[in-house]
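Q: Can I see a sequence and its folded structure?
A: Here is a first one.
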Amino acid sequence: MRLAWCGVAAASLLAGCALFKGPDMPQPPSEARWQERKAALERIDRFSLQARVASSGSLGMKGELRWQQNPDDSFDLRLAGPFGVGALSIAGNPSVVEVRSREGSQVTADPEAWLRRKLGWTLPIAGLRYWALGLPAPASPARIELDAEGEIAALEQDGWRLEYDEYQPAGPVTLPRRFQLASPDVTIKLVADRWEGLPGAEAPDAPPVQ
């Protein structure tokens, strides 16, 4: 059974969503599982993700996404497909990135704004590194809904709403396989086909899509 929504600020995320239990009430099982799961996810400082993405509505575009996350917090995101600018690469760190497309390259501290200017919509670059793991980003308030396994079923943060439809085994944890991101501008569906390079174990190949 899913829990009621729990609004949390960044600081309270560290302590967990404990706003609905009194001092003498035990944690619900799903909340206890979430606290254990969150601690494991926060230890993931590197991974490789290969996924398919599709935007719904009038855009109706499809493509492939590859994300390489490194322990030093740098990343390399590559999009391929008919997304309005052809192949797209965004590489850097949370402070500054280089965006490369068929139009050339640009160094920017705000790749999301760059994408909005070029495409009319954007990807949540700042939060995606965490959201892809099924984890709220640590720097801003979030609202989460948990399922019975202590996994995030839905998340609202930074103007985006995410709904997680399916998780898959990936090394020592389960990670999202299918989820959807929605903003006022666009709805994006993502299917994670392959997780690799996780600390502690290599993730198995994902099963084929049915």
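Q: Show me another, different protein.
A: A second, unrelated one:
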Amino acid sequence: MTEKTKLINPRLPRGFEDRTPGDIAAVGQMIETIRRVYERYGFDPVETPLFEFTETLGKFLPDTDRPNAGVFSLQDDDEQWMSLRYDLTAPLARYFAENFETLPKPYRSYRQGYVFRNEKPGPGRFRQFMQFDADTVGAPGAEADAEMCMMMADVMDALGLGGKYVVRVNNRKVLDGVLEAAGVTSDEQKLSVLRAVDKLDKFGPEGVKLLLGAGRKDESGDFTKGAGLTDAQAAVVLDYVAGKPPADNEGVAELNTMQALFDAAGYGTDKIKIDPSVVRGLEYYTGPVFEIELTFKVQNEKGQDVVFGSVGGGGRYDGLVSRFRREPVPATGFSIGVSRLANALKLTGNLGSKEPVGPVVVLVMDKDQTARYQAMVSELRKAGIRAEMFLGSTKNFGKQVSYADKRNAPAVIIEGSQEREQGILQIKDLVAGKQAAEGITDNAEWKAARPGQFEVKREDLVSAIQKLLSEQ
């Protein structure tokens, strides 16, 4: 490379992040816990690709020449548009429809993986993030929706969040009945009303009342335009928010069925609660909707105490699969935001944050003896122990040990010429060494003590390391 060659600046695009071994191990443990709960309920895994034909994504397909608003898209060599999946639900609907004749019905599956949003990133808002979904396709009754809520509660309990969450449940049919009773007919106004109701926890009834009317001005002076309802129309919505659902509503009957199932299964309102303020944003929900809210306090960017909030949710979407088939296909499911949930577990101390234990490192004291060192590594690996030979260019003992420290190695193996002549090895226990180092301040004392270091016969290498690891 010449001096004039311009170096590339190593940087990530906005809205994406790298993951370290510690992050991967901690999240992997969390995902395994969730998976066990899903499988206990009888759900099986399925995996769909990252790309789908853009038309498969349904409502996310914008009416433009290049369909990339909200999704990342490219045109195939046969001029068909493909997009990175926006969520895990639309691909499931496609998969079910494509394999309709062979799949059992109801079809119960779970999926875990990355999804992509071509949106402006911000604090805690990424353009690539992981979701973990479970869905039942082909079950029309509220029993399937109730099961989803109970499974969500069991997941939270399994993750150690008992007492720190509530699964909140509502029904879009109830909301539709309220809007009809209030005389709200335009789609734009309906959306504004639903957004207002969704702010009940944040702004309270008075704040919702303002958002249902002309609008609301916050403490900073920013004004949010309201739904423009009359006082009489707003009163119908506010009665509903206060816990007075419309009579003779199909959604109310479904909620009553779900509540009976919760009661029978022993899920009290401290775990699952019917809540009229639950809206859920996606337009494809057609019945019960639910979300997991974590109820403990955290500080926002302004230093204010706020409830952590939602880490997942879902609902019934009976129309989504019907985009691919003429007959109606009922479906219900929920999605967990893995990154957000991992952040919550970290805050509550329920997410392992330690770096995974690294490999035992065999130091290279003499370059002409690498075959001997490789033999040691192979013995350890065959015994099921993570191990590696130092492959760097330095001969410096201290730098090789420093490398092992950075790898979070539990121990290093040392064989110089003297050890080789005597048929022994030096094993340096890096964990014990670090602990001993806390009480040693004098460098001469450190060298004399050689804390955590002991010798074994060459033939006892594997058993000595096994014993050391079990003690650590």
